[in-house]
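quick one, 126 residues, struct below
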Amino acid sequence: MPRDIVYTLKAAKPPPTYSQAVKAAGLVFVSGTAPADPATGELVEGDAGAQTAQCLRNIQAILEAAGSSLDKAVSATVILADEEDFAAVNAEWLRWFPSDPPARQGAKLPVRIPGLKVSIAMIAEA
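---
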């Protein structure tokens, strides 16, 4: 089965250990995406809601580079540093997915990264 590595400068650069996304089997698998500004590489300031918005802007750019979109999202994994931020993430999530949201699961970030409140991975139809 062929697979294509997806990369765009319009989203935060990933570390060298993984790709922004991989397109295979009619799907786009977006790696865990941090709330980093693509221009600076720095994490955006603000609460978990602001960081969720930046994660989704990055994912939107990655999906568009793969020929997909957030409208084609089928599954997402939201990873939080602090479970107290769940309400802020949900409030922002509803702005991006007001109806027919993708399936979703959550997890707690297993390591502490200074300033990182949320990371999001997503699977979408290609």
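DSSP finds two helices and six strands in the chain.
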